[in-house]
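re the bet — no i am not wrong, look at it urself. input seq straight from the record:
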Amino acid sequence: MTYFSHSKKRDDGKVEGSKLLADHIAGVSKNAQDQFYKNLLFSISSKELRELLQQIVEFHDLGKYTSYFQNYLLQTGNIDSKLKQHAKFGGYAAYHRLNNDNGKISLIALLLIFRHHNNLIAPDDLAGLIESDAERVFVEQRKDVEKTISDIEQELELSNLSEILHFPEARQIRKACKIWVKKDQNIEDYFLINYLFSLLIEADKLDASETPLYSLTPTASDWVDIRFSKPAKDLTGFGNLSGLSNNELRNLCRAEVVSHIEADDILDQKIFTLTAPTGIGKTMTALDFSLKLKSKIREKEKREAQIIYALPFINIIEQALDEYEQTLPNYNLRILGHYQFADVFGIQSDSDEENYHQKLMKLDTWQGDVVITSFVQFFETLISNRNKLLKKFNHFAGSIIILDEVQTLRLDQMPLLGAVLFYLAKFLNARIILMTATKPKIFELAEHEILNSEDEQVQPLELLTNHDKIFSLFERTSIRPLLHLLQGEKDEKSVEFVRNLFSENWISDQSCLIVCNTVNRSIEVRNEIEKYLSDQHFENPVFYLSTNIIPADRLERIQQIKNSIKNDEAPILVATQVVEAGVDLDFNMGFRDLGPIDSIIQVAGRINRSNKRKQANEPLYIVNFGECQKIYGQLTYQQASKALEGKENIPESDYLQLINRYFDYISERSSFRTSREYFKSIKRLNYDSKDPKKDFAISSFRIIEESDRYRPVYIEIDDYSVVLREKFLQKIMGDLSKEQFDKKFKMNFQQRIISVPKYLIDDLEPINEYEENILVVPKNLLEIYYNKETGFIRTQHSDSLMMF
């Protein structure tokens, strides 16, 4: 009998086998073994892990040998929805094959094979899958394969298969799992299970889709040097920095960072930090260090390391992609951008016949030399039970990971993320570089809240050893608190700010950035600024930027602002926190509503950014509209106020000291229960539960806190938006393929969606009758609901506030 693993429908509508089952299992085995990283640091040897992986792969599709599955696959004969299931059958066989050697290992094999088409579950829940009806199904399936068992053994090169084909005792498995997770719990098991699961499901999906496993390309260590010139090795310049130009300072910093590569023990160091002010060239400095570290790894381990670069926001992901593509010769290697608006069709093809699904599979499984991705993709793969995300978990092993703008991570999650990154380096032998201008105490908090109790200690290596000298050199900006000068009522403060504070401190030939904590406040301030300029007969252009505007317009507006600054038009930008990180704008001065000190310093990084106006100490005025508590909480409000209270002027040279004191204060007074509870779940393998959020199950972890106070709204901003809406409906109805929609329309469609508070959208209808989650502002109602300058039109009948 011929056994197939997959099928396809012919042009005449008939179904035929498309891949032999033995070939599929062999293909999965080759993919998994080729992707296996030999220098793992688990307590189990790499040789044993390879053998375990082979056993899991060999048995994962054993259930496809039943006639029940073959009938279902080829759509012939009687099809039984339960008897056609295949994952459990192979799981039982692997469990009994391995149970004589190691109880925990056999349970891991059982779990991974059971769930290779689903999300991971807690071992505690395994026994629940071996219910009475499961035994009936197994008995029928076993009777079926016994008819051809010798053929199956010959095809899979197995012997004595019948000896391991018996149903396990649920009570025995339940007892073993309880002992495992209650008495023998170990954080190592989480990384081991996720790593093996990732190898299995990635290899399975690559072979099923005929997508080749990518072989990493050797890279040169001097590609950054070629673009920017090689920095001088003489570091004596750190004794006298004041006379250096901005480019000289950048080169000196890059020279010190890459000088660490020469250390004899550099490959023993796994965790690095790079702390430097904004505008010092951290992106290219980290890439330079990573390429040189990659060469060192190649020399010692005889392999290529994948570079994974993660950032928080889409706009800076796209900027980073552009910088990397200008620096790395893309004809020689593959750079992938994996984020919400990623261009699937721009990925290099491996053959002329490559289809959309194969391109998407390459992206989703990070088949490239360099991956530039979002914090959401990175951290929600690192802490996850989701099959869809875990396909790429194995790529962390032996990789070089760069995490940029880490100060944007939520404070309550920092101990958890620091601890998980530590164990990622410890068990999967990854090298991790954390970059920031404000140095949040991620690893210090991880030690204090989690690692100390695990008898672990993390010792990051700071790559820019003299970063305190670099910070002290800069005099680009200064922070000037004006916290008590807005005395009016809430509804009067925007007018008071413009007529008193803005008018007294702004000069008409200066470009100015104003950052508010809420969308409502920012719109009010923007409108008052426009009135003031009109009254005074000033012609400065006024721009507005927040997530209240559709993404398609945001990108265009940023370019308009850049052009206005370049043309010396002294523009005024009113914005929310969307400008705080990675937006490459350079103003003469600014105002910011009271908020976290690290956010304030990020806004200062948009003023005199290029340092063309040396020793200018250009001002960032801090005002208080009274909304800090509602957005950031009481603790942030108290500590930010305390840090700024009584100070008339804080020069940039004192920013590092300011932020360190602030983080010390706020860390000492914060509750990190969320981090501790999630870590307990990771350690106990609590992948999922009936109430995941309440139980802090791994399945509920999200890097960005989800809110049910907002709904996505599609804005029909123009005639093309009407076309896109129709194409979206055609995709849902099946009149347009997902491939065609994604290729031609998806990005533009998504860039017309914003999140809007529910209290503002009571009158809006769903975008169509099949998609009730997304609402729509139709083109004929655009003037009522949407303003091209400030976005969604908000009423004042609620005190609700929206960040960003």
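see?? The two ends are 62 Å apart (CA to CA). told u. also The first strand starts at residue 4 and ends at 9. so pay up
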